[in-house]
Amino acid sequence: MCKKSIYKVKLRLKAVAIFASLFVTLTFSKAQDKLELGGYLGTSYYLGDLNPQTQFYQPSFAFGGVGRYVLTDRYAVKGTLGACRIKGSYPSDKAFFPEGDVPYSFNNFLVDGTVQMEFNFKSYDHAFVSDTRFTPYLLLGLGTTVYKRISTESGNDTNQTVFILSLPFGIGAKYKLNKWIRVGAEWSFRKTFVDDLDIEEQAGFGPGIPNPSDPYGFNNSGKIHNTDMYSVASVMVTFSLFRKKGQCNGGY
User: CA 115, CA 82: separation in Å to the nearest integer?
Assistant: First the structure.
């Protein structure tokens, strides 16, 4: 790996460390108020050049851990760390058909970490109102995706582990079962700024073999629209480790 690549990896590692330290600081600085820890299980799938719009295309298993710190009954900070797979076949009846019929498929493993803000539609788990047990919510945040990138810098295809920026966003709903247990369901997307999540190590792209980074042959090098995404739909269970201390409010 060249010095420039090593420098970029170090910068991304520092960014991930900063995100993680911020979340830990926010969580444990006021842990006596409300801290939830748990996990999620679900499915993940790819959206990109080879599958521009079909939802739940060739889904794979996804899992991970969740930590949530409740700021107010309307806002919460959530951190996730998990793993998933994305895969696809090309050509396919659910993806773009190239000229000709040369098969191409990929199956890639991703590690996914995020820090998200949750915006509740309704008052949820209010300190003094007992019936605020359910709410839908929107989520938005920052994240990183770790995967194996195919590099040809040395003249031969090699795998490099890289950290890239991702922007998670989505919707969800959560329900308070009792004083300690919360359950929820969430459908979120990870917008990345790379175009090679759908590339798998192989001999190369030749005549008639589709290049998944540019299947239409437009030679488009745009960094905004011509990029890969993936989605995670999951159910989660979290456990409240600390109870909020209620205050006497004169009957209010």
Answer: 12
pLDDT of residue 158: 61
Partnered with residue 89 across adjacent β-strands are 105
Distances (CA, A) of 233 to 3, 190, 218: 38, 11, 32
Q: Where are the domains of the chain?
A: 3-215+222-240
Higher pLDDT, 89 or 114: 114
CB–CB of 12/164 below 8 Å?
Answer: yes
> Of the ranges 95-104, 120-129, 147-156, 201-210, which one carries the lowest mean pLDDT score?
201-210
- Please give the CATH topology (third level) of the domain spanning 3-215+222-240: Porin (2.40.160)
Residue 202 has pLDDT above 60, yes or no: no
d(CA 33, CA 213): 47
Rounded Cα gap, residues 176 and 179, in angstroms: 7
